[in-house]
Design brief:
Layout lengths: L8 E2 L2 E5 L4 E5 L4 E9 L37 E4 L10 H5 L7 E4 L1 H20 L2 E10 L3 E3 L2 E3 L1 E2 L4 E2 L3 E10 L13 E8 L15 H8 L9 H7 L10
Antiparallel strand pairs: 1-2, 2-3, 3-4, 4-7, 5-6, 7-12, 8-9, 10-11, 12-13
């Protein structure tokens, strides 16, 4: 649905297109700025979780390649952007979600409960005949994990975000997806603190796309017509949450 930051070849806004997802990677933070992916029944299968966390060797040679051990003992999870369970058709698809370029330092409660609940709800929407366009990102510096507040990991090579956000566009399965987005299309936007004392209910953190854009400077859903963006990006979702 767009390239929110006009990611290109810059060190702080490096565009990466993989088969499973696209991202803007920030070599100074050691994390993606945002990751975007499509979720439909076509991506779902029976492949088990690979758990093969590893550095991303496709990053440019002059970028630091974050290692799984950079998070060890930090009090923060290696938090997926594109979830493992969203890519279960093939071993390769699932394995590529475990690249460290797809990770952020995420407070355990945020990752394992609040975020997991939202991810499960997204997959439920797919089981009901929908396809989703999802973008997840983060901003700010400093979060509180199980070992307390930290601003960086790995000697400053990895920045701990202060806020973590997600935008989910829900469409019935079909074709010409951008052209099917209307003023009534459901868009779920949340913006959460990267804290271990977070509410486990993601609905607590519903907001507008406009508010996320104001915080990040991004243009989310930029491929959608401006007139439709104006409507759907100003609305707080009040739909079901489970």
């Amino acid at each position: 649905m767009g390239n929110p930051s006009d990611a290109n070849t810059g060190f702080s806004n490096y565009f990466i297109q993989k088969e499973q997802y696209a991202m803007s990677y920030n070599s100074y933070r050691g994390t993606p700025n945002w990751v975007s992916w499509h979720l439909s029944s076509a991506w779902m299968g029976s492949t088990p979780r690979q758990d093969d966390f590893r550095g991303d060797n496709t990053l440019p040679d002059n970028f630091y390649r974050v290692l799984p051990s950079d998070y060890t003992g930090s009090g923060f999870d290696r938090g997926h952007n594109t979830p493992s369970a969203d890519r279960t058709l093939t071993v390769t698809d699932n394995s590529d979600t475990f690249l460290m370029s797809n990770m952020i330092p995420q407070a355990p409660t945020n990752n394992q409960q609040t975020w997991a609940n939202l991810e499960n709800y997204c997959r439920k929407l797919v089981s009901q005949g929908n396809e989703l366009y999802i973008i997840m990102g983060q901003y700010g510096k400093g979060g509180t994990g199980s070992a307390g507040y930290k601003e960086t990991l790995a000697g400053g090579k990895v920045t701990v975000p202060n806020r973590i956000w997600k935008v989910i566009m829900v469409l019935p399965e079909g074709t010409n997806d951008v052209g099917r987005v209307t003023n009534s299309t459901r868009v779920i936007a949340i913006d959460t603190p990267n804290s271990n004392s977070i509410s486990t209910s993601w609905a607590t953190y519903r907001t507008t796309v406009d508010a996320i854009e104001s915080k990040t400077g991004y243009d989310v859903l930029s491929n959608v017509s401006a007139a439709v963006q104006e409507v759907i990006e100003a609305r707080v979702d009040n739909g079901p949450t489970s």
